Amino acid sequence: MQMKVKMIALTGILALVPSASMAQSTMNMASPEKVTPAAAKPDTPALDTSFRDRYPRYKLEAGDIFDIGFELSPEFNQTVTVQPDGFITLRGVGDVHVAGETVPELTETLRTAYQKILHEPLISVTLKDFQKPYFIADGQVGHPGKYELRGDTTLTEAIAMAGGFQDSAKHSQVLLFRRVSDQWTSAQVFDVKKMENKRDLREDPLLHPGDMVFVPKNRLSKIKPWMPTSSVGTFAAAQ
Known about the structure:
Among the domains are: 65-129, wza like fold (2-Layer Sandwich); 134-225, Outer membrane lipoprotein wza fold like (Roll). Helices cover 31% and strands 21% of the residues. It has helices at 2-30, 37-40, 103-114, 155-161, 192-198, 219-223, 229-238; strands at residues 65-70, 78-81, 87-90, 94-97, 123-129, 134-139, 145-148, 174-179, 185-190, 212-215.
């Protein structure tokens, strides 16, 4: 009798084993381990998220002019200019600092300022005159300078607009500088030569207003002034 009971218990345990295995298998299928792009391709550098923002909002600068409209209190309608110190002077409120704010942020700043004298003011902001979007190309490009940024423009397109690479350019270490704040500037290196050779521009970043593209000199151009003329051709052929 005791042996029979043990056999029944053992049979019950064995019956549960496949179910547990199946449950574990189902759990693994339902919740697969998340693989990040960095884990899948460890040799691919993770791009800074600040370089991925496709639609950055314009930020106010000194000299910008905009209209402020009050839907329920038109007597406060006014046109203001951002002063060199970043402040504007508001009718009935006084000075308010707005430089560096986007239009939605500016609208909220104005609403907060006027809540001191108006009940739940309805405010609209319209930019009239402002800094046109631009980028700067410098270094070993055909025509260094400041260029108007119209529509979506990538790094390689910006280089083409600036006259393309000079013979002295280092295609594999193109620098893209972006101002993050008044104190910090972000910089990232892009291997344009690799992108063009592979004909893969998926890592070709979109420029933001105020970005600076800098193309450094290649190694040959740095030492060429100090080399005998007859040696230049031999050195270049060896690269």
